[in-house]
Specification:
It is built from five helices and no strands. By secondary structure, the chain is mainly alpha-helical. It has a domain at about 105-195. It has helices at about 10-20, 30-60, 70-130, 135-165, 170-195. It is elongated. Helices cover about 80% and strands about 0% of the residues.
Amino acid sequence: MSHDRTSGNDWANIEKAMSALPDEIEPANDGWSAVKDKILNQSGRHTASIDSGMNQRVNQPVANRGWMPYAVAASLLVAVASSILSIKTLSDYQAFQQSHEHYVAQQQEFQLLEQRRQIIKASFVEDFSNMASKMDPEVAADIQNNLVIIEQALLDIRKAMIAEPDNARLTELLEETYQREEQLIERVEQSFSSMRGEA
C-alpha cells in the first residue's frame, strides 16, 4: 500500500547509529568566557581610574581649596539676608493685620451708626410726608434739599474712605455729617410738635 514503510532492519540500523552518538555535544570554542574576561578587564580599569581620581582630590594641597572660606562666607550672608527678610515680612504682616483689624472695627462702628440713622430717618420721612402739606412750601423744599445734600456728602465720604481707609480726617467728617443730619431731623421734628400743638 504505502511505499514509505520502514522495515525492521532499517530501524535497527537507526538505533545503532543513535547509540554511537556521544551523550553531550560541546561547542568547539566557548565565546562567553572571552566576553566575561573583557568585561572584567574594562571594569577593573574604570574602578582604578575612579580610585586614582579620589586619591588626587584627597591629596590636593590646601592652596587649591582656597574657595572654601568664600563658600562659607556666602552661605552665612545668604542665611543673614534670609533672616532679615523673614523679620521684615513678619513685621509687615503684623502691621497689615493691625491695620485690617482697625478697618474691620471701624466698619462695624459705621454699620451701627448707619443702622441707627436709617431707623431715625425712616420715622422722620413718615412724619415729614404727613406734615409737609401744613408747612410753608419753601421751608419744606429747604428741608428736603438739606437732606439730599447730607445724603450725597455721606456717599462721597464713604467712597473716599474706601480709597483712603487710614485717613482719620475722613472718619471725623463722616461722624460730623451723621450728627448734622440727626440735628436737622431733631429741629424739624420739634417744629412738627409745635405745629401739632404738642409743645
